[in-house]
Amino acid sequence: MITVSAPGKVHLIGEHAVVYGEPAIIAAIGKRTFVTLEKSPSFVYKDGRFDEATEFSLEEAFEKAGEAKKLWQECFEKKDFSQLFAFVKKDYYGNYRKAAVGLLAKKFGIDHGLKIHIHSEIPAGSGLGSSASLAVALTKGLAEFAGKRLSLEEIYNTAFELEHFIHGTPSGGDHSPPCYGGLIWFQRSQPRNIIKSLKQEIPYQLENFVLVYTKEPEKNTGELVQAVRNLPEDYRNPRIKEIGLMTEEMKGALIRKDFFKVKELMNKTQRILAELGVSVPEIDEIHEAVKAIGGAAKLSGAGGGGVMICYHEDNEKLNETIRSLGYEPLETDLGVEGVRVE
Questions:
Q1: Domain 2-200, what architecture?
Q2: Is the pTM of this model over 0.85?
Q3: Rounded distance, CA 88 to CA 102, Å?
């Protein structure tokens, strides 16, 4: 039996601007997905977040992996992934489970069944990278079980293949923190995105950060990105550029451990994201309340609800403020270790 875990992720700064080629800083968070594997006659896949276990044969896993790859190619050519998304979500993501296991079993030469048990501390659909964390942990777990010692880059590239089944054309940003850990400098670029670990420059974990789940967004990430894209260029572009410059400043502030500057940059970024139309009253309320006690708070990810990231030197004061508004704070360190064998 073997257990592997990988952390979730949170955008510290740079969301939305990253779509336009500006940098973002993404952090591995102290909430993890655990994958436990043991040999079995068939494959039995159980995710603690869902009631149903999925049982299937190796042949069925290979078949679903082939179907998913073929469907991805067809959807890519049509520039419409709705058919792929419907396929992977079927039967509580049963097809995704089979396709993911099939792809990994083929890659690593696994010729027998496995009991696969998933336990995740990361709420699904929270914007904290639950699917990316799972893809990285599954990849590492099945590789270890097959006696393969993959480099982090190999784990990253393989997990990226799995993420294509869930997200169509993922950026690669979400599963870099679960893989490498720490803080990640991410920038879209051609022919390859820039993904750089900041461990050498910022070797410490960031403490006193709190995550708050506000509400389920009414619009998905794609719709929110499109809403920003629809803004007049002369209104949108200077704000996008400003977020990019503040991401550069944030890196410098973290290197210097200047958390007064970190707070200033978080609050400024939230103001600009609100101007871009991706904030909501719940986020604005928390932002103003945390700012009033000398802290910082901003949305993280696409916005429209979802997760906020908050910071104050006095964790107790911060938690009290958040609870007074009817929300439950989730305390976590940022910049934690990436994928590992437990």
A1: 2-Layer Sandwich (3.30)
A2: yes
A3: 13
